[in-house]
Amino acid sequence: MPAPKKSLAATALLTDLITGLWTTLRYTFKPNVTVRYPLERSVLHPNYRGILRVDDDLCIACFLCEKICPDNCIVLEGEKGIGKGSKYASYFYLDHARCLFCGLCEEVCPVDAIYHSNEFEGATYNRADLVHDLAILHKGHAIVHYER
Ligand code: SF4
Ligand code: SF4
């Protein structure tokens, strides 16, 4: 597609250059909107969908999160606990490498046991580290600090 032709006056008066310089000048004196990550961290919206966590004290092993997950990230097993009708998750794995962060598991959980944290530093050198077991899902994962 050919570039639009500029008028001779626009070329002679350097209007593109002046427009660009004017834009730079206008933003030079405005406050910064960026933060010096990782020294500073932005305040995230409360609805931010970060790395998933599970409160195993609340989980009743109902399997709803496993069933609704569109990407089969969750695998769990339940066992009978003490008391009539009580169940708990004896085994719970969640693969964050497959997770779409869609929030469906959080939405469907009847006891708010699974939820998105506002943690976003989930990068690792190994994909296997993205599979979190119940202990990691409860406590949160260890953050890897990268150095040059
Ligand atoms: S956020 Fe979505 S994709 Fe990720 S585990 Fe939950 S249901 Fe599955
Ligand atoms: S939906 Fe909630 S209560 Fe049910 S198995 Fe998942 S985390 Fe546990």
From TrEMBL:
The keyword Metal-binding applies. One of its GO terms (molecular function) is metal ion binding. GO terms for cellular component: membrane. InterPro entries: 4Fe4S_Fe-S-bd (IPR017896), 4Fe4S_Fe_S_CS (IPR017900), NADH_quinone_OxRdtase_chainI (IPR010226). The keyword Iron applies. Residues 50-79, 90-119 form the 4Fe-4S ferredoxin-type domain. It holds the Pfam family Fer4_7. Signal peptide: none annotated. Keywords: 4Fe-4S, Iron, Iron-sulfur, Metal-binding. HAMAP family: NDH1_NuoI (MF_01351). This is 4Fe-4S ferredoxin-type domain-containing protein. It comes from marine metagenome.
